[in-house]
Amino acid sequence: MTPNELRDRLDQFPRLPLAAYPTPLERLPNLSQELGGPSLWIKRDDEIGPGMGGNKGRKLAFLMADALRRGKRKVITFGGLQSNHARMTAAACAALGLEAHLFFFERRPPKLQGNLLLDKLFGAKLHFIPFGVAAAASMTLERTNKLVRLVTAVLVGPRAYFIPVGGHNAVGCLGYMAGARELHEQVMALGLEQVTVVTAVGAGGTLAGLMAGLALLDSPIKPLGIDVGKLWKAFPASIARLAGELCTALGQPHTFRTLTLS
Ligand SMILES: Cc1ncc(COP(=O)(O)O)c(C=O)c1O
After folding, report:
1. What is 56-167's CATH topology?
2. 75 forms bridges with which residues in the sheet?
3. Which end of the chain, N or C, is more open, meaning fewer C-beta atoms within 10 Å of its C-beta?
4. Angle at 234 between CA 231 and CA 239, to 5 degrees
């Protein structure tokens, strides 16, 4: 599919203008030289708002539009104490007049600092439920989301809009299909060759969206994820599944069998 076709298909989904695109693709000559490796560039998705920026803004543009379309007034999500996703969800809800409920399955720290303090300043309701630390990667991402959805619906009410950890679903990650298209166009315009896009992987939606978008474009850009949390059981399969769901949502099913996740 061409970049214009991908754009047209993505435009069929509601999206809020929470940020200005495209984000710049900047060259890092000093770091490239220091490392003596390949030419390094940075895609400035840290400039995406709301709430001080970050990759989650691309997902929230679709998720918040979906919440509004469904007439939701309350939004639930969860993450680690310093979750950037939670902070940006709180900011988006504040901007849209929605009630954000953020769940942290840890003890409330004696003092709210960093993103937790910002969450509070954005007016989010913070819920601390110290379940105790589970054994590392003992559950799949899907099972965790299902369990948390059940628990939080009891506490906030069943009509609230639930956003999985990191915005990891086939609505939010459309945002990174759009991101893939944007990157593809920039890379092609610059005439760069043998490009690998490297992304941190937390909940995996950024990587899934990039994989799906690049695959549909038949782009020469290769996605590479680095798992920074090691939180989930059978994680590569979850990411591959989501990437497949995204392609299906855009009317062009695609199966992702192999996954490079370091
Ligand atoms: C700055 C940054 N980049 C990338 C990621 C990965 O995002 P995802 O949850 O979509 O894997 C995260 C979150 O973990 C992040 O905070």
Report:
1. Rossmann fold (3.40.50)
2. 100, 161
3. C
4. 85
Query: What does the domain layout of the chain look like in residue ranges?
Result: 3-48+170-249, 56-167
Kindly report whether the global pTM for this prediction surpasses the value 0.90.
yes
Instruction: Compute the distance between CA of residue 38 and CA of residue 33 in angstroms, rounded to an integer.
Output: 9
**In the block, which residue shows the tokens 């909940």?**
203
Q: Are 117 and 52 in contact (CB under 8 A)?
A: no
- For the CA of 201, the closest atom of ligand 1 is 11
Domain 3-48+170-249 has CATH 1.10.3210.10: no
3-state class (DSSP) for residue 230:
coil
Residue 25 in tokens = 């693709």
Which of ligand 1's atoms lies nearest the C-alpha of 208?
10
User: Per-residue pLDDT averaged across 195-209, rounded?
Assistant: 96
pLDDT at 18 over 90: no
What's the pLDDT tens digit per position in 145-180?
Answer: 999 999 999 999 999 999 999 999 999 999 999 999
Q: Token pair for residue 87?
A: 């902070």
- pLDDT beyond 80 at 238: yes
The percent of residues in the chain predicted with pLDDT above 70, rounded, is 97
Q: Compute the distance from residue 227 Cα to the ligand 1 centre, in Å.
A: 9
Q: Which of 60, 84, 118 to mutate to test the pocket of ligand 1 (most atoms within 8 A of CB)?
A: 84
Q: Which residues line ligand 1 (CB under 6 A)?
A: 54-55, 84, 166, 199-207
Confidence of residue 229 (pLDDT cuts 50, 70, 90): confident
Residues with Cβ within 8 Å of 134's Cβ and at least 6 positions away in sequence, in order, are: none
